[in-house]
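On clarity, I found the account of how folds are encoded harder to follow than it need be. What matters is that the chain and its backbone geometry are given together, residue for residue. I therefore recommend that a typical entry be quoted early in the introduction. An entry of this sort, consisting of the sequence and the corresponding backbone structure tokens, reads as follows:
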Amino acid sequence: MSQLGLEEQQEARERRMAEVEVIESAYSPHEAWTINTLTGNAEGVVDWEGPLQLCQIIRLLDLPLSIIPDNCDENSSVKLELTLAMPNDYPVSESEDAALSVEVSLVSCPSNPQFVRKAALNAIPILKKKCHKEAISSVGRESVWSVLNCAESWIHSEWEELLREISDGTSTRQPSLDDSIGNCQDSKAKSIIGRRIIYSHHIIANSKRKALSELATQYKLGGYAKIGWPGIILIEGDEFGCQRFVDEIKSMRWQHLSVRAEEQSEFPEGETDIDPYRKLPKRFEELGEDDMSTLASRCREAGLEHLFLICLNINDGRNSTDKKNEDPPNELNIGMKSTSIFTYGALIHVDHMNDAKGYRRWLRQACRTAGCSLLIKHCRINSSEKSSEPINTTSKTLRLATCRPDIIVGLFGDERSVRQVLKRWRTSRVDVDSKNKPCLERMMYVIDECELDQRLSSDALHERDTLLAGQLDDENDLECSLEELIILVKRIDEKLATSLRRCNRCE
């Protein structure tokens, strides 16, 4: 029986329902489904007074068999069923007893070759342990998505290695990366050192950070992974290994991931050791969330500043490939893209926050989970800006209050993520009422939401990405005037700034 009070049960129920909705929208019914979910009674009305019901999320996992011999169907795979059950206190309580329970079972497996079934049975306890560890580390917050990502990461980074180890015992060993490279010493792939710089919306999950490090070690790549918002990965090593690394991380689940630049350099024919030709350290190193300047400095010292600048869409002459002293004459190619990870935005007016710190903490957590950037400002207007018109309570047109600051919240990311936060916001108890009881937000109003302008120059896109990747919800910098806020929003998107100005009658 749950030890939660009625209000906590209501909060748990709402947060569970929101999480289930996210999973159902992310996967097809054949990929993931739920049973005994909190859908309410036969009429679809949620029973707020009733006890919490058991909710299970089941994900069908495909474990590829790409390394098996040719006599096996290339479309076949091992299918496992990952079942996540929500205990009564999930996700409100921070006790380990409130962590998701994890079960893994075998659904189907090819009968030939025989070692595949053995590998599948060996994989079950390993995968279960990995997912259980992730669930424990995420206790006290929604963790279904992170556990599913943990399972996917394990499949992409460790399953094939396990399959190889089992197949080795049956004398059906497949060529490893080292074997493949050793057998093509005279090939172009062996005589080329490759580099890639990869831009991600963020790198936060421990499972993904571990996977990056393990993959770099597996393919003998050096470089850096700068975690946080945004995430940047810089790798260097054998060109074949770089290609495999990129292919594998692209198969993981990312908010946004793109190879912003790449280059390949030949080294003398007959050489088998690429280490003397590396520009980056042989070891792959993780840099912290605040180490962007460290990464820039190390790229500059290695003569690879042009890659760093291209990654951030900075075109100021320093990233020209024509500079004789910066790039090797035998460089084969370098690619450049001007894209933004922020494609959609919404501005929301919030009438008040009774539990202001708790409310803002909820917004930050929701945005972090969805991969959105958050803006929060308390806006006061000067007397000269006040309107003498009466307030039309039936209209959605706003007039900034004079007795307290108006609260403007901005959400920025891709359209799906922004709308996900908005949907969760409307259905969660984010504040407290006059009796200090958790309550839903009933007085928020979306000023405008739209696609952000992507026709800007590379410099402008970089400036916007840098602005939105910063801390626009700083507790020590919440207050501003209306005009200051409009100027800030205009740096993000002209249309949103115009909507903000119009709804506040400043034109």
